[in-house]
Amino acid sequence: PADRIDAVVSLAKRRGFVFPSSEIYGGTRSAWDYGPLGVALKDNVRQQWWKTMVQQRDDIVGLDSAVILARDVWTASGHIDAFVDPLTECQSCHKRFRADHLEEAWEAKHGAPPTSLSELNCPNCGNKGTFTEPKMFNGLMKTYLGPTESADGLHYLRPETAQGIFVNYNNVATAARKKPPFGIAQVGKSFRNEITPGNFIFRTREFEQMEMEFFVAPGSDEEWHEYWLQQRWNWYLDLGLSEENLRFFEHPKEKLSHYSKRTVDIEYRFQFGGTEFAELEGVANRTDFDLKTHSKHSGVDLSFFDQEKQERWVPYVIEPAAGLTRAVLAFLLEAYDEDEAPNTKGGVDKRTVMRFDPRLAPVKVAVLPLSRNPELSPKARGLAETLRKRWMVEFDDSQAIGRRYRRQDEIGTPFCITVDFDTLTDDAVTVRDRDTMKQERVALDQIEDYLIKRLPG
Ligand code: ATP
Questions:
Q1: Distance from C-alpha of 232 to C-alpha of 238, rounded to nearest angstrom
Q2: What is the rounded (10 degree) CA torsion for 107, 276, 48, 22?
Q3: How many whole angstroms from its chain centre is CA 435?
């Protein structure tokens, strides 16, 4: 529900996951900054993606290409001509919208698309029939390289990481000695001059993507497409998104991008006002469009000679394209929970708990001396120092222990370790589990093994 996202936005700011960008100057609607815990969470999502997509596979290698590529790349890719959205403006309140988004929202409600924009009410001011004829608007972000703002210097910030992969296809295949089927993966910032950024970090003008281009023999493309849809679906499930919050969305044929034979999105139940599900990741069959167009425009042959079949062909591309920052939002929403925890007076308190998968939790362990005390605190600090070699650890000795547990629950720390007066004699500590709130006594010389078993990498 709407209050869930509000609760997450407020928690994100309060606890240092995500801040409004340039807030002391009033903020910009389109950008957000990642605070101490947000950096760690985003990094963990990125690492999990890299681990499954690159580290654990023999057939995918990594790349980190530039944000600003040669201008010809974007002519060849079709972005200069085709990376456009229909822009309309409400003449009453002067707010701008993407006409296709307005039409989609109408269709979701009425079951059929509107016959014209004049049927629609403005989502901002409510007035009807106030939209201008849509004008095509290019979403590429422009910049000028060099000391003068001349036409020669005009360049673009990449709107996707994919093109950096295609133009390096020969370099990578040769250097890594790979031939189809194989993939190239890349994570990095992309920029789009979005008409309507919004819904927190869901749609921003500057965002991060995790993309992988998988090159296959023509004819095997449909099978590989199915394979990647399943792999990507399983990845989200494995990291804690629940099945009822996910669904596939098959793009209708007539709405496919210029390069695509088939695109299926993995959607998440973000539940923004009005729309239940929204795109989390797009998995497209890009055919041989990309390598062919770059061969044509650059004059460099990007085809492959198949020794077995004694044939030359241009690889087809299956592309799972995910949003890193958008995935962070999905994991934040999914993790958010409220329940009750026993208090010291024998009653219960409401608690907010972020049920992150331990692999994603920004802080893995909190070390808490039972009270601020000249004997307990140094002992606990020493333990925190040891554990920091392996994990992100917080040390906290201020306020009552119950308050400190609540603070850790709210940021999703899987384990709290309490050092108490018994520790001074029995060399053991109490480990509290975030989800069950159960406590267990563990010997200090066993604590690392205990955590290693429960905190997979
Ligand atoms: P949308 O329809 O939401 O604009 P898209 O279909 O244009 O997205 P793709 O080009 O398929 O998106 O990009 C792949 C992924 O990159 C998306 O699934 C999303 O997770 C992420 N992404 C795209 N645009 C943005 C944005 N403006 N802000 C945050 N993430 C984005």
A1: 10
A2: 90
A3: 24
Going from the Cα of 150 to the center of ligand 1, the distance in angstroms, rounded, reads 31
- Rounded to 10 degrees, the C-alpha dihedral 39/42/48/51 comes to -70
Q: Is the dihedral of CA 435, 436, 437, 443 positive or negative?
A: negative
Nearest CA to ligand 1 atom 28: 203
Which residues is 32 bridged to in the sheet?
Answer: 20
**Collapsed DSSP state (helix, strand, coil) of residue 348:** strand
Contact by Cβ (8 Å): 384, 367: yes
Q: Find, among 321, 61, 368, 339, the residue nearest to 207 by Cα.
A: 321
pLDDT tens digits, 243-300: 999 999 999 998 898 889 999 999 999 998 777 899 999 999 999 999 999 999 999 9
Say yes or no: CB of residue 204 within 6 Å of ligand 1.
yes
Output the residue whose Cα is nearest ligand 1's atom 6.
282
Give tens-digit pLDDT for 90-127: 999 999 999 998 998 888 888 888 999 999 999 999 99
Helix, coil or strand: residue 271: coil
Q: Which two tokens stand for residue 303?
A: 């085809």
Residue 282, ligand 1, Cβ within 6 A: yes
Is residue 27 a contact partner of residue 20, using CB atoms and an 8 Å limit?
Answer: yes
Mutate to test the pocket of ligand 1, among 163, 199, 203 (most ligand atoms within 8 A of CB): 203
Distance from CA of residue 34 to its chain's centroid? 13
Task: Report the alpha-carbon distance of residue 319 to residue 302 in Å, rounded.
Answer: 18
Contact 209, 188 (CB under 8 A): yes
Residue with tokens 């993939």: 183
Amino acid (one-letter) located at 38: G
Ranges of H-type helices in 167-220: 169-175
325 lines ligand 1 (CB under 6 A): yes
pLDDT score at 346: 86
In this structure, what token pair is assigned to residue 110?
Answer: 């009425």
Distance (Å) from CA 123 to ligand 1 centroid: 22
Cβ count near 242 (within 10 Å): 10
- Are 316 and 218 a contacting pair, CB within 8 Å? yes
